Amino acid sequence: MATGSARAAERRFQLLTVLMGGGRPRVDELARRFGVTRRSVFRDLEFLERMGVPIVRDGGRYAVLDTFKVRPIQFQPEEVLALMAALDFGQRKRPVGGTAARSAWEKLLAVLPAAQQELATGLDRTLVVDPIQAYSLPPSPDVEAACRAAVEGPHPLRILYQSLHADAPVERVVRPYGMAYRGTALYLIGFCELRREVRIFRANRILEAQVLSTTFERPPDFDLERFLSDVWGIEFGPLMHVRVRFDREVARLVRETIWHPSQRLEEEEGGAVILRMEARGTGELARWLAGFGGRAEVLEPPELRQAVLELGQGIVRRYGGA
């Protein structure tokens, strides 16, 4: 949900676009179009004039001088590549961007100079950014809007939350500190008054959300990016010093991938490699390591080694009689 100043900035940009379109609208028409008062429209027109836009008034109709042009945005080729890659990913992962990403792509294309338009159009045909096959279902629009409004306030948020392993949903009050996409899933991060600690809530498991009228102060030392940097995926827990030996058969893959910001690699004789890192999330780490089969061995911590062992034993029990 946008703030008042953000909404005004967006409206003024849209107003400039309308005036440059040549329709010569009246103030009443503009007020109806943008859902504001005539006074707001006059303020927006005055703002554009202060910014140097040559507004023309003719019999109660408004336009912009034909000679006025918005200066084209000059991007370097590598900047165009970065933007197109991000928008391509957003289009393919509907919860992240979807139609909004496509709309942004079209707007970007409209303001690029001819040479950069040609480059961007070519990339649209030849570039695919799709690193994740599966994507998370999005939360309901009402829930997502309530989460964003609560974060912006900031206001406490009353939620009905269905956790992954619980039989029934539980009502909680959360003081939201921020939101984050991990993969393509949207999460709400905040202080849970029920558990009395900072928790991570997957947004599509929030069945109902109500923004409360009160406000609160976020801890001044809380940094959302730093909070999430230690987490392997999204599962929180105690910080662990992790040490895993990968056999030669998978060592090349381990070497060529940044799995975690804190990772460090140690080469061993025979081609094996040891990965060290400080991370949280025993369950997620165990499931990742189990995917390497017998080619990865947890050296520490013991609780992670035990979690991988239990996964393996469960697989053997399931398939042992086949």
TrEMBL record:
Residues in HTH deoR-type domain copies: 8-63
Pfam hit, one: WCX
KW Protein biosynthesis (keyword) present: no
Keywords, in A-Z order: Transcription, Transcription regulation
Organism domain of life: Bacteria
Keyword Cell inner membrane found: no
MF (Gene Ontology): DNA-binding transcription factor activity
InterPro entries cross-referenced by the UniProt entry: CBASS_pafABC_assoc_protein, DeoR_HTH, HTH_11, PafC-like, WCX_dom, WH-like_DNA-bd_sf, WH_DNA-bd_sf, WYL_dom
Listed name of the protein: GntR family transcriptional regulator
SUPFAM superfamilies in UniProt: Winged helix' DNA-binding domain (SSF46785)
